[in-house]
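Annotated sample (chain length 125).
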Amino acid sequence: MKKILIIDDDSTIRDVIKAVLHSNYEIKEASNKKEGLTIANSFIPDLIIMDVMMESITSGFEAAREIKKNKKFKNTKILMLTNVDKETKIDFKSEAGDDMWLPVDEYMVKPVDPKTLILKVQNLI
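Output written by the structure step:
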């Protein structure tokens, strides 16, 4: 069974994602960057679904960069879920995949449509 790690400080978002995906994937969750990186190191997920703004407005960016630099996660994909582009008026979706700025494999804006989430997850893993 493929493994997914959800890193988001909003427990409701984590619960919704788990409800949508739990029947097809092994899922673990974390509420912040530090906890997420710790779990990722032992769980080695196939996919990490994470928020941008957690304990700081850049926590998700920082975590994504750390994960992508670590050879342990060479096969791990990252799906960024956030509404930070609404807050900043920056089109982060167009930057997804940039190794220096936003090293994620896919990007979705919250609130997330469950059918779209399922399709993106299936395409990534």
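Annotation: The chain has five helices and five strands.
Annotation: The radius of gyration is 13 Å.
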